[in-house]
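Changelog-linked ticket: calcium ion example.
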Amino acid sequence: MSLSIVILAAGKGSRMKSAIPKIMHKLAGKTLLDHVIGTAQALSPSSMVVVCGNGADQVLPLLEEKNITSVMQHEQLGTGHAVMQAEDAFADADQILVLYGDVPLTQQSTLNELVNCGDENSLRILTTELDDPTGYGRIVRNDVGNVICITEQKDADEATLAIKEVNSGIMVLPAKWLSQSLNKLSNNNAQGEYYLTDMVSLAVKDGLEINTVCCDDNAEVAGVNTRQQLAVLERHYQQLQANELMAKGVTLADPARLDIRGTLTTGTDITLDVNVIIEGNVILADNVEIGANCIIKDSTIGEGTIILANSMIDFSQVGENVTIGPFARLRPGTKLSDNAKIGNFVETKNANIGEGSKVNHLSYIGDTDMGNNVNIGAGTITCNYDGANKHRTTIGNNVFIGSDSQLVAPITIANGATIGAGTTLRKDAAEQALTLTKSVQRTIVGWKRPNKIKK
Ligand code: UD1
Ligand code: CA
């Protein structure tokens, strides 16, 4: 039995007070419409169409990018009228599921339950009970509890307004019956609109069975009309994600101060301090510790690694038992091998840092390949940009770079080389030698590093 999904997304959302169409506002880093599309796709429908109108210039390019069919509703004459615009989508389908682009948190399981709550010839409505049902369409039932119609707030009398069971707007309708009956809708109501909700009384008249699923979690059917409502749903969603993480064995210093805007995959015994923000796809292995105020985006962090407070990590790969921060910034293309250490006020970009290598203070390491057990002194800068092009810096194993040095790329520093403090290195440095450029650059072959004096 084929299911086709129609997503209504043509409304303006004037209460958002925004130049951006309502459905393009973001919840957990993803547009409201993307949330709905994601849930819809998870149901594997035979077809799917988004009804666009207001702000279509901003919505259509994104739908095209995702290869999602859209239709235009040039004038917003109501939810029923919106569904009429999508009629072509019904041609081959048995059932139509109507979703709203501004109701982002409906669970796939709830929609499955709705689709299966009656046979294919019935009309199925997702409802919920609200203490304050103001603004919603009310589910009107007869003496024996059968649904007879939905009455909109503006068309309701006092007794109807007292009903607390409301229409979520989400419905499943038999496709053939729907396409035969849509033209029976009239706009003879308080708002002068073609209401999709009037399909219910038409269905009753035609003898169709009406089934309902009443959703316990109001947030699943809550629509976003204002920025306040958006903020409430954002917090609700973040709380759900926090609960899920804790259930998987992650310690959160405060579940109310974590934001996941994407997908977080976790091992066990991970600790997240307050105000951690996760964006995109992030993987944290076992025993990772993340300090306060860290932002981690599209990165993988290896087992036992510690990220200290106020660090930012973007599109980077971090090995095991690495220490990062506080106040470190790993920019895209950073790869840290096991046991490496990136300290405070260090910025890295497109850099491979070998095992056990340390960049502890105040440095910029960009476009660099660094070997193992390297020590980069405080204030070292890779000068990767000549004003027109970027060049790479290659640093061998066991290299020691003195503080406040500039490495002018392209340049290679061979294994075991030592660069004196304050060096502006413009030529390659030889292996196992001390290179200085303080006065005239000279190379001392056979120079030996001082031995550590044992106390
Ligand atoms: C609708 C329902 C109401 C339900 C409520 C739940 C109707 C008549 N009423 O009312 O019973 O309780 O949702 O939130 O259906 N849209 C279009 N084109 C239009 C009009 C609307 O695409 O011409 C889209 C909007 O973008 C939105 C959705 O349909 O995504 C709902 O429209 P909205 O105007 O918010 O309906 P409500 O008055 O809230
Ligand atoms: Ca609404």
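Closing comment: Example verified and attached. The two ends are 81 Å apart (CA to CA). The chain has two domains: 3-221, 227-435.
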